[in-house]
Amino acid sequence: MPSTASPSTAMIGAHVPPEDPIAAAADTGAGAVQFFLTDPQAWKAPAEHPHADAIRSAARSGELRIYVHAPYRINVATTNNRIRVPSRKLLAQHATAAAALGATAIVVHGGHLGENDDPSVGVENWRKTFAYAQNDGGFALPVLIENTAGGTNAVARRFDRLAQLWDAVGEYDAGFCLDTCHAHAGGEDLAGIVDRVLGITGRIDLVHANDSRDAFDSGADRHANFGAGQIDAAVIADVCRAASSDVIVETPGGPDGQGADIAYLRSAL
Predict the structure, then answer these.
(1) Maximum distance among all alpha carbons in the chain?
(2) Domain layout of the chain by residue ranges
(3) Beta carbons of 214 and 228 less than 8 angstroms apart
(4) Which stretches within the chain are classed as H helix?
(5) Which of 21, 197, 234, 267 stands the most exposed, by the fewest C-beta atoms within 10 Å?
(6) CA 3 – CA 10 distance, rounded (Å)
(7) How far is CA 134 from CA 71, 121, 155, 173, in A?
(8) How many CB atoms lie within 10 A of CB 152?
């Protein structure tokens, strides 16, 4: 289902180290957390989290909203079946583990193809990912596809490609995560971006609120704290306000840097 949060009910939080997300949330002043279940660069199924009971309890009580980010290795769009097939399996494994922790959703990058590959094949590979999962009973929780910053043949960098993707996966109730740094670095103007995305996907389930160290359309995925990069902090706040969804900052600086960014958004919203 599309996000039904309002600015008053949306939670603002941070991407935190996975070892103890509840303690990290307290240190950062976060109402929501996002974390990896394994090394994001590894092909590894997640094990039981050492603080699983506490995380589930916090999620059930509403004390903390939980999001899981899938490993960066996952690329279900690719034509390389040595990557695509294990990517589908790994995404399902992480989704199941995230659901067991009481997570609201799992976030996964849109992926990319080789330079000379037909982009429609990547879109069809995404459709098959949801179709195969549905045949097995569906993903264990909502899967949010995130727009990406770089790559000349990415599936979800440019919004014309995003529209093609949603024509294929929208019927499966795919969710969407809008990253402000990725949009800026990917060449999509943040002015009016929420309306443009909603016109394509009909939904924004989560915002990754990040400044960008690099210039517009640079293709570089390097996040910065608010006011330290190339995006006006007020513009980031405008995106969050218009989206009316939960917000996760993935900015540097640990509890101090992320805490300041969260405090800014709470004040601005």
Answers:
(1) 49
(2) 67-249
(3) no
(4) 21-28, 52-61, 81-100, 119-135, 159-169, 180-186, 193-201, 233-243, 254-268
(5) 267
(6) 10
(7) 21, 20, 21, 11
(8) 10
Q: Could you identify the residue written with the tokens 């939980």? A: 66
Q: Report phi then psi at 256, rounded to 5.
A: -70, -50
State residue 7 phi and psi, 5-degree precision: -55, -25
pLDDT computed for residue 8 by the predictor: 53
Predicted TM-score (pTM) above 0.85: yes
pLDDT in tens, 94-120: 999 999 999 999 999 999 999 999 999
Q: How far apart are CA 123 and CA 69, in angstroms?
A: 21
Given the structure tokens 């034509």, which residue do they identify? Answer: 79
Contact of 140 with 98, CB cutoff 8 Å? yes
- 72 secondary structure, DSSP code: T
- The string of pLDDT tens digits covering residues 131-176 is 999 999 999 999 999 999 998 899 999 999 999 999 999 999 999 9
Distance CA 115, CA 119 (A): 9
Contacts 24+ apart (CB under 8 A), 1-8: 1/173, 1/203, 2/202, 2/203, 2/204, 2/205, 3/203, 3/204, 3/205, 3/206, 3/243, 3/244, 3/245, 3/246, 5/244, 5/245, 5/246, 6/244, 7/241, 7/244, 7/269
CA Rg value for the chain: 17
Nearest Cα to Cα of residue 78 among 161, 153, 165: 153
Whole-angstrom Cα distance, residue 7 to residue 95?
27
**Architecture category of domain 67-249 in CATH:** Alpha-Beta Barrel (3.20)
